[in-house]
Amino acid sequence: MGSISFPVQLKNPGLLDSRGLVAGEWKQAEGNKTFPVYEPSSGDVLYNVSDLSKNDFIAAIDSAHEGYKALYPGMTAKERGIVLRKWNDLILENIEDLTNILSLENGKTYAEAKGEVGYAASFVSWFAEEATRAYGDYIPSQYKNAMVFTVKEPVGVCGIITPWNFPAAMITRKIAPAIAAGCSVVIKPPSETPLSAIALAKLALEAGVPPACIHVVPTKDRQASLELATNPKVKKISFTGSTGVGKMLSQLAMGTMKKVSMELGGNAPFIVFEDANLDLAVEGALVCKFRSSGQTCVCANRIYAHRNIMDAFAAKLVARVKAMKLGRGIDEGTTQGPLVNKAAVNKVKSHVADALEKGGQLITGGKAPEGLKGFFFEPTVITGATQQMQVATDETFGPLAAIFPFESDEEVIQMANSTEFGLAGYFFSENVGRVMRVAGKLEVGMVGVNTGLISACETPFGGVKESGVGREGSMYGLAEYQNIKAVTIGNLHE
C-alpha cells in the first residue's frame, strides 16, 4: 500500500493514509490494488493509494443515501454549523501537515500550499454560518383563506469530483455547503492528488460529520467514477475540471435529472489600459498568471496591453519574472514550483513553439530548465502575440505570459470576448467610467478590476458560456445543494 517513506515527518501521522473511506470504514481496494501518486518536483512515486472500484462507489452511494438523514432532519442547522466550525478549527490546527501533504503531491510552493489550506478552511467557516440562514418565504396567496410558504431542503446524495490544481480548497468549497444544507457526499478525488482529500475527510469525521455522510473513493478507473453521474440515488453532481468532461458528465446526469454544478475551462483575458497603474498591473499579472505555476482555471491566459504602454509593462513584468526561483515546493526560497506532469510541460512547450513560429518574440524563459529532475518549465514571457496563436484560443495551464497589443477599448473587448469560455476576466484602469463600462461588457462570470486576486469564500465563483453553470462559495453557494418546497394551506378559516 502506501508504504513508501514520506519525505516529511508529520506532526499528526494519522492524516496520511492510502485507503478510501466507504460506509464509515477506511478500506483498501480488492486485491490490494493501488495506483501511484507522483511528486511533480522529482517525477518519483510519492505514495501508493488504493484503487477502488465501481462496487465501492455503489456501496458509498447506498450508505450516503441512507446516511444523509443523520444530517437532515437528524441535526438542526445550528448543530450542522457547530460541526463545520469544529472542522474549520481542526484544519487550522493541522495546517502545517496539510500544507506539506498538498505541496508534495501537487508541487506548488509551501507558501501557496499554506495559503490554499487557509483558503479551504475559510469555506468551512463561511458555510458554518450559512447553515442557519437557509431562509424560506411567506407568499401572499391569490386565494381567500389560504397561505403559501416555502422551505429549503437538502437535495440528498451529492457526487463530488474535484481537480488536482486545488486539492484542498475544491474539496471544502463543495463539501462545506453540502453538509451545511444537510446533504451527504461521495467524493472522487483527483488521482494526481488524493492525499489531501483523504486527510481532510479524516478531520471531518473527527469534527463530528456522521460517517455515513462523507465518503472518499480514490480510483484510476474512470468508468467506475461515472457511477456518480448515472446512479439514481445521487441527486446532484458537482464537478470542477475540463469543459469536455463537464459536458459528458452533464449529459449522463440528465438521464436521472440530477442537479449539476459545473466549474469548467477558462481563457481569461487580462487587460492593461493606457491609464493603468503599471506597478499594480504587474503585481496583478504575477498573482493571476504565475500562481500555482499558471495552473489555475482563473489565471490570465491572454494578456492585452495597450500599445502606448506595452513595452514599459513588459519590461517591468520581465524583471519580476526573471527573479523567480524554480524548485521543490517545500524547499525554502522556492517561488515557482513544477507543473503537475510531463503532459502539462509538453503543452506549454507546444504553445511556446507555436507562438514563436507565428511571429512572437521570446523575452524570457521558453524552455524546461537544466538540472531539475521533475516537471518544470521556466516562467516565460512572449510579446507580439496574435489571435492566430494557440495561446489565444487554448488554455495553456502553465507559466506562459503571452502579451497581445491593442489600440482601442472596442478592439480589446472584442478580442477578450472572442472565446467560447467566460469564467474570469481582469483589467487595470484608473478611469472610473471605463471601469464600469468594461466590467459590464466582459462576457465572464467574475471580473477583477485593478487586482489579480478574485477568489474568496464570500465571492460567488463560476462562469458563463462554456465555462459552466452554478456558483460556488458566497451567499449563493448553499442554494446549489437545496431544493425549494412550496407549501399551500387552504381553507384556513372555514
In terms of topology, how is this protein built?
Layout: E1 20-22, E2 25-27, E3 34-38, E4 45-50, H1 54-67, H2 77-93, H3 95-106, H4 110-130, E5 138-139, E6 147-154, E7 157-161, H5 169-181, E8 184-188, H6 194-207, E9 214-216, H7 222-225, H8 227-230, E10 234-240, H9 243-254, E11 259-263, E12 268-272, H10 278-290, E13 300-306, H11 310-322, H12 342-357, E14 361-364, E15 380-383, H13 390-393, E16 400-406, H14 409-417, E17 421-422, E18 424-428, H15 432-441, E19 446-449, E20 464-465, E21 468-469, E22 482-489
Parallel strand pairs: 7-8, 7-10, 8-9, 10-11, 12-13, 12-18, 13-16, 15-16, 18-19
Antiparallel strand pairs: 1-2, 3-4, 5-6, 6-22, 11-21, 14-15, 17-20
Descriptive overview:
The chain is α/β, with parallel strands linked by helices and 494 residues long. The chain folds into two domains: 13-264 and 469-484, Aldehyde Dehydrogenase, Chain A, domain 1 (3-Layer(aba) Sandwich), CATH 3.40.605; 268-457, 3-Layer(aba) Sandwich (Aldehyde Dehydrogenase, Chain A, domain 2). It has 15 helices and 22 strands. It has helices at residues 54-67, 77-93, 95-106, 110-130, 169-181, 194-207, 222-225, 227-230, 243-254, 278-290, 310-322, 342-357, 390-393, 409-417, 432-441, and strands at 20-22, 25-27, 34-38, 45-50, 138-139, 147-154, 157-161, 184-188, 214-216, 234-240, 259-263, 268-272, 300-306, 361-364, 380-383, 400-406, 421-422, 424-428, 446-449, 464-465, 468-469, 482-489. The strands form six sheets. It has a seven-stranded mixed β-sheet with strand order 14-15-16-13-12-18-19, sandwiched between helices. Strand 3 and strand 4 (45-50) form a beta hairpin. The longest helix has 21 residues, at 110-130. The chain starts with 19 loop residues before the first strand and ends in a 5-residue tail after the last strand. Residues 26-487 form the Aldehyde dehydrogenase domain. Keywords: Oxidoreductase.
